[in-house]
Amino acid sequence: MAIENRTLVSKAAIDTSKLGTGGAMNPEQQTQFMNFMKDYSVFLRSVGIINMLSTQRYLDSIDVNKRSMRTQVENGDNPATGTVETKRRKLVAAGAIMPYDISFQFMKENIEGDNINTTLARLFAQQFANDSVDLAWNGDESDADPFLKINDGWLKIAAGDADTHKYDTEGSKDYLGKVFPSLLAEMPSKYFQLYQEEDKNLITIFCSHAVNRAYKQQLQQRNTALGDSMIVDGKHVTYDGHEIFPVGFIPDGVLVATPFENLVYGIFGQSLQTYHDVVPRKTRHEYTLLADFDMEIENPDALVIADDYT
Length: 310
Description:
By secondary structure, this protein is of the alpha+beta class. It has eleven helices and 13 strands. A hairpin with a 2-residue loop joins strand 8 and strand 9. The radius of gyration is 23 Å and the shape is globular. 30% of the residues are buried.
C-alpha cells in the first residue's frame, strides 16, 4: 500500500506527461510534491519543513528568562523582573535546477512503455529528496563544488554561529564513556528541563552511520541483554534516553545534538516547476525540475556541534 501511495502522490505532483511541455505546479501539486518528499525520506518527515510564500521568510523564536518569580507586594509596585528575548533568523531561498537528458533510443527500448514518464517523475522526486538532505547538512557556499555551493547547510551554519555550542572530540571514539556525555553536557540545562516531561527524545543526537555502528559495538562489549540485541536488532539505539539518529550524509566524527524541529528546511512552493521538452535535433528528451529553498537553524542556542577541532 505504501508503494502505491507513493506512486499516486508522485504522479499527481510531477507526472511530466500531464504537464505537457511543463510549467509551474499548482498549489495542490506543490503540497503533494512536498508530501511525497516527506513520504520518501524519514529524515525530512521529522525536521521543520516550511512552505515559504516568498523567497524570504523570518523565523522568530521567543525565550523567557528563568527565576523571574517574586513575592507579591500588596498595594505596592511589583516591577517587571522577567525579560522576553526575541531571536530572529532568516530564510533566503536559492534557486536550484535538476536537469536530466534521456535519449530517444532509451525511450524506444524501455520495457515500461507509456508508464516511463511516471517512473521517471518518481525517480526525480526521490533524488530531489536525497539531494536536499545531503545539501541541508553539507552545503557550503564558499566551496568550489557546484553542488555544495548552492546553499549553506546546517553544519556550516552551526560551526560558524557564535550562539551554538561546540565540543572538541579531540579525535576520541569512546562514544559511550566520553563523547556522548560530553556532547550533552554542552547543551544548556534549560532545554533538558523543557523537554524532560514531554519527551526526552526530542533532543536527538545526529551522527554518521560509522559512528552509530561504533557505538553499537561498544554496547555489545558490555555483555548485557542490550549489548546482545545490538547484534541482531537494526533499531535505533539511545544514550541516556536520547535517540542516536544516523544520517548517511554526516561526515564521520561530526555530531550534532538538537531537536529535530530546530533544523529548518524552507522551500518556496511557487518556485516548484517541472518541464519536459522533446528535442528531435538532439534525439533526446529533456526533463527539468526547478525549486528555490534554504536551510536554517531556528534556535542556535539549542544546538551542540562536535568535531575534532585539534
